[in-house]
Design goal:
By secondary structure, this protein is mostly helical. It is about 60% helix and about 5% strand. It contains eleven helices and six strands. A two-stranded antiparallel ribbon has the order 1-2. β1 and β2 form a beta hairpin. The N terminus is likely disordered.
Amino acid sequence: MDFHAEAKELCFGVNEQPYWCETGYCCGETECCTYYYELWWFWLVWTIILMLSCCCAYRHRRVKLRLQQEQRQREISLMAYQGASTYTTQPLDLRFWTNCKLPAYEEVAGHPPTPPPPYSELQQQQQQQQQQQQHNGLQDQGFLWAVFQRVDRDRSGVISENELQQALSNGTWTPFNPKTVKSLIGMFDRNNRGGVDFNEFLGLWKYINDWQNIFRNYDRDNSGFIDKNELKQALTSFGYRLSDQFYGILVSKFDRQGRGQIAFDDFIQCCIVLQRLTDVFRRYDTDQDGWIQVSYEQYLTMVFNIV
């Protein structure tokens, strides 16, 4: 039996002229297919297989990253509960931190206090300050109204999360953290509309400016980022006493750009999460000794109230 004869195929070329194809594949008018690249279906099948493999690998990677983020969040929750052993008994309100900072002892000792002015002069100064504050308040309100109208692109009277994210800047030319925007909207949205009106926007604007002033105090090189040591100094000034290991976890958790540093918007999100964790911890720390004993279900309730 001739195997080469079985592999031949009768093909028809120009003017229906028949010719035998040695490879068994008819391609051209007078020639046969001799290379695999001429078999289009062969490469099509392998292309589909390669695309399916890439999709499966991408999906597996996303699932793996999500599990790592959840594990990291659980570690942060546990470290926060263990590290919050010392804190003040009053709720921590960081928005007024800049106004409550006391002068240094050397500054007070080196400048003896001057006698107060007469009562009439003091009263006149207070009236002038009140008038100046009212005038500045009207100017600021007019400026903020113009800002509000620019941000409210759909003219609905309410700034949504997307509109606020597009308007805010973290100083690094990257989009503002959507989790931070969502947290800010949730803090000032009193009517649960998914956005803030102008009156709520006034409080939100002041809240962001207060955080920006605090952030600039520790961003000494004006890079738009703070490192682990600067974050430790900031949180220590707020009353937190945490370990270096925990500060490393915070940086790795809230560092979205992989620089080993935290940007302004991520710094806000970090402080908001810490404050929420501390508030939840205080609810169970009834004797105010920095230790709590909770059941597994209570622990899950604490975590899911924050996540």
